[in-house]
From TrEMBL:
GO terms, molecular function: beta-glucosidase activity
Keyword Transcription regulation assigned: no
Family: Belongs to the glycosyl hydrolase 1 family.
GO BP terms, alphabetized: carbohydrate metabolic process
Protein name (Swiss-Prot/TrEMBL): Beta-glucosidase 7
Shown part of the complete sequence: 109 to 601 of 601
Highest taxon of the lineage: Eukaryota
Any coiled-coil regions, as ranges: none
The UniProt record lists the keyword Signal: yes
Biological source species: Hyphodiscus hymeniophilus
Keywords: Glycosidase, Hydrolase, Signal
Length: 493
């Protein structure tokens, strides 16, 4: 395994938290075990034909619900500092609200305790897309303001039960993604009267109220851990140096990151571009709500996989704004991965996996990306890259040798990404942590099990795990440049 050549001006600050991540529906399986209620993802994958490759589901997944002790032991053995996982809301509340399922509360308590016993810090996400089905059917899920109280009720139970055993909380994962996934397919869920093109903005509105409410709730309960939500998106590069492309890039930031980051980091309100472009229906925050929302993320948590070029629509901005069925709508910023001579010499490499065409290796851009976040949203508690990773098709991965699977493309992604973070840190950007996606191959949502993001290989017939070479490449960055001791080969007493 190649070792990073040490650059003496690079180092991760003391206390830098680094680790690996998973999410409940993608990893746990045990879909009907110990009182779990269904989530919208059970319906999507069981009832909507063709939603995943080969109609795969999360019924079994990595069997992580039963194998978490082994899985935590395997990452502790490599010295991993934190494990980030999500709690399944419909395990704690099988119907989303009402009756609490004690068995599930105890399950996650044991996951948390197992982490602590192995010297691995638990990082916990409350909502990673697996909405309890009942809440979707009852009132349209995130489209209704009723979700806010139900989310707070769920958050209160979780915060109260696990409290200060958890140093790091994330309320919601990537609202840009799950709110843009509204509208959900017709006929499977209760219809709503909100027009489809407006639905993402109602979802986002309720997410901001739920997140900020949970932040204040946690503080009132005496929770000391950091609290954030996980934002997401790639670095946005203007395709040309025209002013039209510069404006397109700004709209793209505003309609993606800014949608959630401006309210929480700047002023409690949406970016001006958002208010201008979708003013006819964008919900308003009251002044009291703006005050409540502003300042409710302790860290800028960003899932930052890749970069894209952006450019203004050819047909002009007016026709774009009018055409609500246009895929560019409403930001009217077109995207491309074209590597052209006008791109300033930056490297946006090809996507390795046809199932993830959005994911190009663009690690050269990461320092600029981190500077942009620091300069734009000025997060007092710094920036954490809470997901990054690369899908490498199985055929490219080399054979397992001495129990290690060689995945050269992903290895180079991690090596270059970690060096890019080190460069940004050496230039003064306050990066406080990072989480690699993912702890192991798992259910990649509608791409099923074919898309391989894991730092560990999983044989889905036998459930055997094997480390991939990229995992050692990742850990090696902290062995080489970390200030804290990396303690591998931990053996529990
Ligand atoms: C994340 N994009 O989703 C999710 O949080 C994970 O559950 C998922 O497995 C992982 O990334 C890999 O896809 C994303 O288009 C989906 O930029 C789309 C994008 C980014 C992240």
């Amino acid at each position: 395994i190649p070792m990073a050549s040490k650059n003496s001006s690079w180092s991760f600050p003391k206390g830098f938290w680094w680790g690996v991540a998973s999410a409940a529906y993608q990893a746990e399986g045990a879909a009907k075990a110990e009182g779990r209620g269904p989530s919208i993802w059970d319906v999507l994958l069981h009832r909507v034909t063709g939603y995943t490759v080969a109609n795969q589901t999360g019924d079994i997944a990595d069997n992580h619900y039963y194998m978490y002790k082994q899985d935590i032991a395997r990452i502790a053995a490599l010295g991993v500092k934190t494990y980030s996982f999500s709690i399944s809301w419909s395990r704690i509340f099988p119907f989303g609200n009402g009756q609490i399922n004690q068995e599930a509360l105890e399950h996650y308590d044991d996951v948390i305790n197992t982490c602590i016993e192995y010297g691995v810090e638990p990082s916990v996400t409350l909502f990673h897309w697996d909405l309890p089905l009942n809440l979707q059917n009852l009132y349209g899920g995130w489209l209704s303001s009723e979700i806010v109280d139900d989310f707070l009720n769920y958050a209160k139970v979780v915060f109260s039960y696990y409290g200060n055993k958890v140093p790091r909380w994330f309320t919601v994962n990537e609202p840009i993604v799950f709110c843009d996934d509204y509208p959900l397919p017709d006929n499977y869920f209760t219809n709503t009267s909100i027009p489809k093109y407006q639905q993402p903005y109602w979802c986002g509105h309720h997410v901001l109220l739920a997140h900020s409410g949970a932040y204040h709730l946690a503080r009132s309960l005496g929770i000391n851990g950091t609290i954030s939500f996980k934002n997401n998106g790639g670095y946005k590069i203007p395709l040309t140096n025209s002013s039209a492309d510069a404006r397109a890039v700004q709209r793209a930031w505003d309609f993606n990151e800014g949608w959630f980051a401006n309210p929480t980091f700047i002023n409690g309100d949406y970016p001006t571009n958002l208010k201008d472009f979708v003013s006819d229906f964008l919900p308003d925050f009251t002044d009291a709500e703006k005050q409540m929302i502003n300042g409710t993320a302790d860290v800028f948590a960003h899932d930052a996989y890749t970069s894209q070029f952006y450019f203004a629509p050819d047909a002009g901005i007016d026709s774009c704004v009018q055409n609500k069925s246009n895929p560019l709508w409403p930001s009217c910023a077109n995207t491309s991965y074209t590597y052209s001579s006008s791109d300033g010499g930056w490297n946006v490499g090809p996507a390795a996996d046809p199932l993830s065409p959005w994911l190009h290796k663009a690690t050269d851009w990461v320092p600029a990306f981190l500077h942009y976040i620091a300069d734009t949203w000025k997060p007092a508690g710094g920036i954490a890259v809470t997901e990054f990773g690369f899908a490498e098709p199985f055929e490219v991965q080399k054979t397992i040798k001495a129990d290690i699977l060689f995945d050269p493309i992903r290895s180079s992604y991690y090596k270059d990404y970690m060096e890019a973070i080190l460069i940004a840190i050496s230039e003064g950007v306050n990066v406080v942590g990072c989480l690699a996606w993912s702890i192991f191959d798992n259910l990649e949502w509608s791409d099923g099990y074919q898309d391989k993001f894991g730092l560990q290989y999983v044989n889905f017939t036998t459930q055997e795990r094997a480390y991939k070479a990229s995992f050692f490449e990742y850990v090696n960055a902290f062995v080489t440049y970390g200030q804290d001791e990396v303690v591998p080969h931990y053996v529990p007493s």
